[in-house]
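Worked Example 4.2. Consider the chain below.
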Amino acid sequence: MSKKEKFHSRQYLKLKLERKDLDEDPFVQFDLWYRKILEAEIDFPNAFILSTVGADGVPSSRVVLLKGYDERGFSFYSNSLSRKGRDIAENPVASLCFWWPEFERQVKIDGEVSVLPEREADEYFKSRPRQSRIGARVSRQSEVLANRQLLEEQYNQFRSEWKGKSIARPDFWKGYVVNPVRFEFWQGRKNRLHDRFRYIPSPDGGWSIDRLYP
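Applying the procedure from the previous section yields the following structure tokens:
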């Protein structure tokens, strides 16, 4: 069997997902899965694809890191002047997609985006390594950069000028939280007959759960 044939014939055989296995609350269900991912000690367990759409209607995706989740939603941090920051300012909605191949699982979350309180952004920024804080200050994220050398020179200059000084969070560096309006939990299965369940808000204030065709 060639590499191409092997790639296309791959089967998903590790786990299954039944309706009875699901918690009625999608936040709890996410937490159950996420804790198993953390216990497995895989690389970048909190990485997810963040998709946004600006005023021009053109979608854009990139990998970012989850920094927390609670009853408000799922949080991450970014330069608000970047493309994703501009997209969110123009159209405050986003889609998150977690993919954990070790478990053949993915979770998709669609929701509305809001900015976290500045106090929380300040606290998280202070917790970052000093080198990362400098990087956040000097990077004009998503703008054209003439060459790598220029970026490194700006980094070294800032590091020299701020030696021994506290590096505060810049105004453009913000925290965001995605408040979900839809969840999908996907479990890979044999013959591409995957298990896929959707949570959407129900009129009674809870969540309606439906199995979807894969």
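The mean pLDDT is 94. The chain is about 30% helix and 35% strand. Compare this with Example 4.1 before moving on.
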